[in-house]
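Supplementary Methods, section 5.1.

A reviewer requested that the exact input to the structure prediction be made available. We therefore reproduce it here, unchanged from the version used in the analyses.
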Amino acid sequence: MYFRSLISAFLLTFCAVIAQAGEIITARAWVEDPTGKMTLAQVKQAPQTPFENAYFTQGFSSSTFWLRIRIDPRNVSKDAYDNELVVRISPAMQDQIQLFDPLDQKNTPRFTGDYFDWANDEYRSLNLNFVIPIGDEPRDIWLKLNTHQSTMTMVEVMTMEEARAADRRQEFFTMMYFALLIVCMGWGILSYFTQRDFLIRIYIWREVAAISYALVVLGYFRIFTSGWLPASHLDAVSNYIVFAFVSYVMWFDSWLISEFKPNVWLIRLLRGLSLVLPIEIALFAMGYEAIAVILNGYSVIAGVVLVSLAIISTKAWKETKDAPVDQRPVFPKSFLVGIYSVVVVFFIFNRLSVIGLVHAQQVSLYVVLVYALLSSIAMMVLVLVRAQRLRKRQEYAQHQLELAEIEATQERERRIEQSNFLKMLAHEMKTPLSVVRMTLGSAAIEGRAHDVVDRAVTDMNAIIERLLQVERLEDQQIIIKKDHFDLLAMARDLAISIPHGERLQIKAQGPIVLNSDEQLVRVILSNLLDNALKYSTAGTQVNVTLTEAQDSIRILVENEIQAWEVLDTERVFDKYYRGDHAHKKTGSGLGLYLTRSLLKLLGGVISSSSSDNQVRFEVVLPRIAK
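The structure derived from this sequence is encoded token-by-token as follows.
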């Protein structure tokens, strides 16, 4: 409600600024001159079409239009102390207007428009003006309008005193207007200093474009360029600014809306439509001014349609309905639709009046400026809300990062303590284990008791060694030392040294020579063989097949398991993982984890599978280590 009231007040104020003509004009009519060559005498004899209010429009047309304005000096206020009237014409972008006044005793043609320097105007203001005598009797003055812009033109006649007062009101209003635009741009600049966001950056340039556009439409550009920009170039530069403003606004809107997951093709079409700018500039430069202006007008309508469809097609709110608040769009969809609805209504109203599809009203001419201001404020609100939400997201992400860093530090400290503990434990246990083994060798323990104790000591040594190897691996303390060695000879040697090695059936066509780290390969192969012997069915054979290709070798280890035992192929290589049936045997859960990690270090891979009570581990190792 407040927003609607603000818009109404804005329009009423603007109407008050422009509606100052009183009853000096008593009748209006127009004549179309398709050839542009009719004389005033011919025009007076031609059929005339009356028009009601101060606004005349026939859309875009290549014809010349003659406007008949009947003025009655008897309606001039008796308090007027000047003997002159001001014919006040807007907008200031109209190309060329010629005045014909029966009381004009001079034979010099009288022109105004943006084809002519502002300094040469008869009465200088933000509008186009002629100064005529009041006269004693009602009379008709004629205005000859030539333009490639829209023919929508407002004509007023007022006393010199009324004109000066209207100018002061208009200047005050336009200064307030520019102040609001500058506030929007200044907010964008300040926000960009605190948050280097792409959307804020292009919003700043959007405001620059909006201010430039307003300078052209309100007549300031014609004033500021007087004396240094040739009048022959003023019209072209003014139109280029208008074209650029329209294209940039569509390009900006495409980036803003794209954050809410609209239909991709609608956004592509909207951005493609903004590329009409070079075509419009080329057409204008080649002399097809009217075509360029018409193309710009219709591209605006197409852009408004695409923006509306793109907003309707957005999916961000639906897709994040159940997501955390910080992952949802920065404002409700109704907010976005509401703001763009106001903008669209204003702009369509202006465009339809400009093109001539609807009858021009008193505020039709300047409603586009209302659009520019309201859209700037609306975009500032949208970007402001978005920036606040993004800042909250960044603060939350920063908080999470700090927590993660604290956890990482604590984890690192725990790992250091764990590593130191394991090193201490390994060092302290190796000496007692050596003593136990020496005592075992000299004691009178024989038979099964000797084997059980010896196996226990061997298992404890293996667990300690694997813990130390994993620590070195994760601390990146392992350095690859390449050397040539025979893999088959290594396998046969391991079959002799590890417990129950007699169950191994090693198959190979001959010696297999590798250029790799012999110690690491030995650990890999030892872990595979030990794992197969430990967890296979007691007394069964373990098959080890070694084959070679041109650049790699393949190790296949197969063993039999009980029917009720299941191999979890997805977790078997995880650190500390042990299957349910494995807990009956001594182990650390590090053997296969260490095997895969060392293979990765050497450029190899390992995989596992099971079927028909058979478990298979397959290793592919490059013949030459990385």
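The first strand starts at residue 25 and ends at 33. These observations are discussed further in the main text.
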